[in-house]
Design a protein that fits this description.
With about 525 residues, this protein is mainly beta. It folds into three domains: about 40-170, Immunoglobulin-like; about 170-320, Cupredoxins -  blue copper proteins (Immunoglobulin-like); about 350-375 and about 405-515, Immunoglobulin-like, CATH 2.60.40. The chain contains six helices and 30 strands. Strands 11-10-13-18-15-16 form a six-stranded mixed β-sheet, with no helix packed on it. It has a five-stranded mixed β-sheet with strand order 1-4-9-8-6. Strand 2 and strand 3 (about 60-70) form a beta hairpin. The longest helix has 15 residues, at about 1-15. The chain is globular. It catalyses: 4 Cu(+) + O2 + 4 H(+) = 4 Cu(2+) + 2 H2O. One of its GO terms (molecular function) is copper ion binding. Its EC number is 1.16.3.4. This is Multicopper oxidase CueO.
Length: about 525
């Protein structure tokens, strides 16, 4: 897929460079061009075909086995329209079973693609749904229980773009791959021979699987040459466990126009944009001055994520504006954001996130032994603070310790056969997600809804996080969200609520719930 798209994209730029207004110097840079995933729209029968398969991809000069949708790595961007039904047929040519979860889509549990929606190796599945939600940038990825982290690490992820009339009325940049650009950000780790080096062990069950190589659309530090004016970036943090802090190398502002579930009421001007795993934000960046710059990620304070090269600003994407002028604009207002309904008398649920103390201790110990104190991100840790923790940890239950069920919600690891509760369809509820007593970062994701954040880690949500969201930030504090589910989910196809640090999800920090 990458080679074909690379050739197609460079051919477009090559033809355009014949125009006197275009800058040819941008094309002479040594960086690879940013690969642009193809837009895949439903055919005349409202059908989309997806093939999950294994292939080969080049990373840092070596060839690795990777997995992808309709290609060897990542996948296309599916373009859907509000109110129009679509059927998707998924064929699985992998050696493993998988699922396809529609992350951020408000669809019934029967087609949501959680861990019950298994597609056997060599098998297929067809789902039909009608997106009724607002225009948004969502995504799709595996949700195979116990193996989600591995399958995403191998390359399985793709975007879903939903359009509606409200979006079409705005003069936002909308030339796909030119001034409307997808930016899928992931980190990876490789073995000496270039293979993707994924492990689910005590350390990664505690802090998550993280890499030392940053990829943008599957490529290390690519470049993009947009026209001058406004550039729209559809950002996805597709990392397993790494939070990001997006900025620009010359401190030019980012104007956030949309979050997980769609447009904000008005643009929010930032110079730094934190992004949790699984989150999407759409930002506009002005390129009118023609000056080249980098989109970068700044260091974050998260255990395991402070090691080089992430201990300094790290470039994601080089922007080299061309001389031709862009046509998109930055509107002053974007979309109507309904006022929050009354919170009086709403049913409230509390979800307490926790990690088994043995996993906590052993995971931190393994992290420090493997990478040194720098990996603890200066946070310190209640387990590590006590003397003697370096001795006997592995002997004390290490070999028989079941880390696969050591992350929990309300004291229980995930049980696919027993949904935790039922939510009445179409009724608002107030959910309190608590990470109190746990120093870990938990980006908490709820299937089947786009919610509003009432408070995040005990504070009002930031302006760019006050719109429609499907992931909330929980870190040693309580966050509250206002949820409503407009589709049904039976026990056999329950919705999930879970930490989107994928190794936490895979080792138990997830529950199922029904809607009726």
């Amino acid at each position: 897929m990458h080679r074909r798209d690379f050739l197609k994209y460079t051919a477009v730029l090559g033809a355009a460079s014949a125009l006197p207004l275009w800058s040819r110097s941008a094309l002479a840079a040594p960086r690879p061009a940013l690969p642009i995933p193809p837009l895949l729209e439903p055919d005349a029968r409202s059908h989309i075909a997806l093939l999950i398969s294994q292939g080969q991809s080049q990373f840092v000069g070596k060839t690795a086995t990777t997995w992808g949708y309709n290609g060897s790595l990542l996948g296309p961007a599916l373009k859907l329209t509000q109110g129009k039904p679509v059927s998707v047929t998924i064929r699985n040519q992998l050696p493993d079973e998988s699922t396809v979860h529609w992350h951020g889509l408000e669809v019934p549990g029967s087609v949501d693609g959680g861990p019950q929606g298994v597609i056997a190796a060599g098998g297929s599945r067809s789902v039909t749904f009608t997106p009724q939600q607002r225009a948004a940038t969502c995504w799709f990825h595996p949700h195979q229980h116990g193996k989600t982290g591995h399958q995403v690490a191998m390359g399985l992820a793709g975007l879903v773009l939903i359009e509606d009339n409200e979006l079409r009325r705005l003069r936002l940049p909308q030339q796909w791959g030119i001034d409307d650009v997808p930016v899928v950000i992931q980190d990876k780790r490789f073995t000496a021979d270039g293979a993707i080096d994924y492990q689910l062990d005590v350390m990664t069950a505690a802090v998550g699987w993280f890499g030392d190589t940053l990829l943008t659309n599957g490529t290390v530090n690519p470049q993009h040459a947009p026209p001058r004016g406004w550039l729209r970036l559809r950002l996805l943090n597709g990392c397993n466990a790494r939070s990001l802090k997006i900025s620009t190398s010359d401190n030019r502002p980012l104007y956030v126009i949309a979050s997980d579930g769609g447009l904000l009421a008005e643009p929010v001007k930032l110079t730094e944009l934190p992004m949790l795993m699984g989150e999407r934000f759409e930002v506009l960046v002005e390129t009118r001055d023609g000056t080249p710059f980098d989109i970068v990620t700044l260091p974050v304070s998260q255990m395991g994520m402070t090691l080089p090269p992430f201990d300094a600003p790290l470039p994601l994407l080089h922007i080299q504006p061309l001389r031709v002028q862009a046509s998109g604009t930055l509107p002053e207002s974007l979309a109507d954001m309904p006022a929050l309904p009354s919170l009086e008398g709403l049913n409230q649920r509390t979800l307490q996130l926790s990690m088994d103390p043995m996993l906590d201790m052993m995971g931190m110990q393994a992290l420090e032994q493997r990478y040194g104190k720098q990996a603890l991100a200066g946070i310190g840790h209640h387990g590590m603070a006590h003397g003697g923790m370096h001795h006997g940890g592995m002997e004390h239950g290490g070999h028989g310790f079941d880390f696969h069920n050591a992350n929990r919600i309300n004291g229980k690891a995930f049980d696919m056969a027993n949904p935790a509760f039922n939510v009445p369809k179409g009724q608002y509820e107030r959910w309190v997600i608590s990470g109190e007593g746990d120093m870990m970062l938990h980006p908490f994701h709820i299937h089947g809804t786009q919610f509003r954040i009432l408070s995040e880690n005990g504070k009002p949500p930031a302006a760019h996080r006050a719109g429609w969201k499907d992931t909330v930030w929980v870190a040693n504090a309580r966050s509250e969200v206002l949820v409503r589910f407009d589709h049904a989910a039976a026990a056999s196809e329950a919705y999930m609520a879970h930490c989107h640090l994928l190794e936490h999800e895979d080792t138990g920090m997830m529950l199922g719930f029904t809607v009726a």
